[in-house]
Design brief:
Radius of gyration: 17 Å
Largest sheet: 7 strands, antiparallel
Bound molecules: flavin-adenine dinucleotide, FE2/S2 (inorganic) cluster
Shape: globular
Structural class: mainly beta
Strand order of the largest sheet: 4-3-7-1-2-6-5
Number of helices: 4
Number of strands: 16
Length: 252
């Protein structure tokens, strides 16, 4: 289980050398990397790490999919040069990773019957979230959305947590035909991560919730303002004030 230590405590950034244990394809372009190293500053589901790719100027932000003492799991999609470089990294290689980034989901605000809604590369952080919720006695209903059958990953891993899971694909080749909002039922409270159109669609059909946003990042730890996003409470940094935003503060 992730060593979830409750909310409210100060989280500090830490630069850690991790050793790659495994780096394997889950689908054609989705990879799972497991790493060995100091996970002390990873405290809450929904946080992310920032990975130094040798030869590339900016680090790449990737959500924490799972963690335990000294073990970190990341799931990433190959979309450009940095993530392509990551896909060639081998067990035994060492990488520099900033941990302790992002606010994470506030588990203290979650009611008994939430829906976890994850879409595409928004699915990985929802695994740690489901695991931590089970740990505090909440069984979430999990709705996962993908484009097509060959994109689907981690359905079995969610089911192994003992949570109800439903999958939708846009082309109907697996699970229900449609998008995540077609399978979230009448749940009022959503915990959501995925592409922005998906976040907005979920936002429009629930009464409350927490939503994880992406932004291009410079520093990744709150210093450059490069990731600023307009909210109802002024501009906020996705890397430091987010990536999770409460429903009431989101401005589209
Ligand atoms: C908080 C957060 C969590 C994320 N979690 C995951 C995850 O768990 N799995 C996953 O596959 N992807 C995740 N992403 C997206 C991931 O960071 C980008 O896909 C990745 O940085 C692309 O790098 P690249 O070099 O392959 O692509 P390129 O397009 O070559 O990247 C060029 C630059 O743009 C930035 N960039 C490109 N796409 C994105 C993006 N979508 N969001 C932010 N920066 C981007 C890169 O970091 C790099 O600095 C996350 C992004 C954020 C902000
Ligand atoms: S990326 Fe620098 S403040 Fe967010």
């Amino acid at each position: 289980m992730p060593p979830f230590k409750g909310g409210g405590m100060e989280i500090k950034m830490k630069d850690v050398e991790f050793k790659i244990l495994t780096n394997e394809a889950l689908t054609g372009d989705i990879f799972k990397m497991t790493l060995d190293g100091d996970t002390d500053e990873i405290r809450k589901p929904g946080q992310f790490v920032d990975i130094k790719i040798p030869g590339r100027f900016l680090r790449r932000p990737i959500s924490v999919c799972d963690w335990s003492e000294n073990k970190l799991t990341l799931i990433y999609k190959v979309v450009g040069e940095g993530t392509e470089d990551m896909s060639y990294m081998e067990p035994g290689d060492y990488i520099s990773v900033l941990t302790g980034l992002g606010n994470g989901y506030d588990l203290r605000k979650i009611p008994k019957n939430p829906v976890i809604a994850g879409g595409g590369v928004g699915v990985p952080p929802m695994y740690a979230l489901a695991k931590c919720l089970k740990q505090i006695g909440i069984t979430p209903y999990v709705a996962l959305g993908f484009n097509t059958k060959s994109d689907v990953f981690y359905e079995a891993e969610f089911k192994a947590l003992g949570v109800p899971v439903n999958v939708a694909t846009v082309d109907g080749s697996y699970g229900a035909k449609g998008i995540v909002t077609d399978i979230i039922g009448d749940h009022d409270y959503a915990l959501c991560c995925g592409p922005e159109p998906m976040l907005k669609a979920v936002y429009n059909v629930v009464k409350d919730g927490q939503f994880s946003f992406e932004s291009r990042m410079g520093c990744g730890f709150g210093a450059c303002m490069g990731c600023s996003k307009k909210t109802k409470n002024g501009f906020k940094r996705v890397c430091k004030d987010g990536p999770i935003f409460m429903m009431e503060e989101i401005a589209w």
